Amino acid sequence: MKKIALNGAGLLVALFAAFPVYWMVATSLKPNREIFSSTPRPVPAEPTLEHYREILTGNLIPGVTFVDFFLNSVLVAVATVLLSGLVALLAATAVARFRFKLRTSFLILLLVVQMIPLEALVIPLFLMIQRLGLYNTLPSLILTYLGFSLPFAVWMLRGFVAAVPKELEEAAAIDGASRAQTFRKVLFPLVAPGLVATSIFSFITAWNELIFALTFINDQQKYTLPVAMTFFFGRDDTAWGSVMAASTLFTLPVIIFFLLVQRRMVSGLVAGAVKG
Amino acid sequence: MTTLTEATDEAAARETPARRSRRKVDRLPYLLLLPCLAIIAVLLLWPLGQVVMMSFYKLDSVRQLRGDREWPWVGLANYAQILGDPFFRTVLRNTVLFAVANVALTMVLGTLVGLLLNRLGKKMATFVASCVMLAWATPALTGTIVWKWIFDDTSGLVTWLFNKLPDGLSTTLFGRSDWTGYGWFNDPLLFFGILTLVVVWHSFPFIAVSVLAGLKSVPTELQEAARVDGAGPWRVFWSVTFPMLRPVFGILVVLSTIWDFKVFTQQFVLAGGTQDRSTFMLSIYSYAEAFSPPPKYGLGSAIAVILTVILLVVTALYVRMVLKQEDES
């Protein structure tokens, strides 16, 4: 009896959590007459890909399609990931492998800067981007997202570096490997999975960001996907099929990546809060 | 703190190779940190200082930002204007009430789901956890767009549900039976309700998974002993489980408070931009003052500073908590 109640509650939670995602995908596969019918069907009766065809081939502005915005977003996110991964790996190695005077200060700094409300930095970063002549360019976003993703990336990566037994590096050093060789041939391959996980978080940060992209980019053909979505779809309350198809294409990579690494997220954010 | 480190690093770069190799062990970590520190300094700390500085100037055009025009110093005038504006008090009240309500609801729902996941059988727990992950993984932008579609005034699911209510009941309860065309987002209170639904939907999974991780890491004997001694679930939670997980709850409440205080994307998308001032909260108010024509960058900066100071206090609490735990480990 109790078990039934627990399972029932579980099903309710699952429904509440997953339903909007399901509804997004289901709506994107329905023909318009089903979307706008007075009795919504839980499952598409005649599934169709017409909305996907619409957004992938249709020009949102002359010569620019959904795919172009998608590529803008990919470019920005991948550049952010590469830069942030490299810099974070160096810093994480320093923190996890060395005991130095300002180590604790640096860790506190990492924690504190993660708490800076990024929304409060739109105006001063807008000023900086204007002064640097980067307004209306994609590098303005890469730069901004690099700053946003770096502190968490270092925080997370330091755990992975620390988890590699120090003895391996010491053995390599005894065998005559230089510091650079040890780093490249011993530490790096072992930290690589952690670097992938960290990169995914940087990717999601850059991929999802809306406010700065909205503010720093003026030319419509340079819009990233989130801006394009609010501009072309978010305000148009009639074409729900296309809106949901676009949303699905935007959401899918994030969900796939996210499910790969979500475990790290919890341990990164509440690191050391409980000891078993 | 940062400038000190950078100075040391510059000194390291200038050193002769012989000296460097002698003191390699000391210098290398600073060299490795240099790029990271430089980025944090330029892209996070410098702008943080800039926003404070900008709040003391009257900045009304992009040409001033580019440096083509003078920056007239106005001292505390921007702050005086904001703090003297009754509208600001409304916005502040909205922000605080929204944050308190959302943190409370997120924590309660998240904790309940965490406890539930801990009690479910393995298959069921995996299934429910996977569904919960979906809500967490969904970007704020698309999650909000879907909820907007669910609340659409003609073909939305909620509109359909309310139309399904027996006419008599619907009329007695709400004073109307035909919900087609009803603007769910027009009434500010209803707007905040839907915004709360969207934000809680997005943020309860993190709480649930963290609480679950906490539950898995503490010994279960105490809970069992309490249960054997006849304590009900309510008693077991408050007397045994909660005290053990107090550090986790502390951090989760602080993180949630920080996140819910500066909600932007969900509000921006749900309201369809920054036109509707009746539902403003601090972060969107700051943005709208600065970037909606006519631009008022100085005024927007002052609001951003106020938001930052509020969050700074919460952050101080957070850092103290984390450091205390690092010390204990």
Mind sketching the topology for me?
The complex is a heterodimer of chains A (276) and B (329).
Chain A: H1 2-28, H2 32-35, H3 50-57, E1 59-61, E2 64-65, H4 66-97, H5 103-114, H6 122-132, H7 138-163, H8 166-174, H9 179-208, H10 211-216, H11 225-234, H12 240-269
Antiparallel strand pairs in A: 1-2
Helix pairs in contact in A: 1-12, 3-12, 4-7, 4-9, 5-7, 7-9, 7-12, 8-9, 9-12, 11-12
Chain B: H1 2-14, H2 17-22, H3 24-54, H4 62-66, H5 77-83, H6 86-119, H7 122-137, H8 140-150, H9 157-164, H10 167-174, H11 188-217, H12 221-228, H13 233-261, H14 265-271, H15 282-291, H16 297-328
Helix pairs in contact in B: 1-3, 5-16, 6-7, 6-11, 6-13, 7-11, 8-11, 8-14, 11-13, 11-14, 12-13, 13-16, 15-16
Search tags:
heterodimer, A: 276 residues, mainly alpha, MetI-like fold, 2% strand, globular, B: 329 residues, 78% helix, disordered N terminus
Describe this structure in words.
The complex is a heterodimer of chains A (276) and B (329). Chain A is 74% helix and 2% strand. The model of chain A is unreliable at 271-276 (pLDDT under 50). In chain A, strands 1-2 form a two-stranded antiparallel ribbon. Chain A has two domains: 1-48, no CATH class; 61-269, Orthogonal Bundle (MetI-like fold), CATH 1.10.3720. Chain A is an all-alpha fold and 276 residues long. Chain B has helices spanning 2-14, 17-22, 24-54, 62-66, 77-83, 86-119, 122-137, 140-150, 157-164, 167-174, 188-217, 221-228, 233-261, 265-271, 282-291, 297-328. By secondary structure, chain B is mainly α. The chains are: A mainly alpha (276), B mainly alpha (329). Chains A and B meet through α1, α4, α5, α6 and α7 of A and α1, α3, α4, α6 and α7 of B.
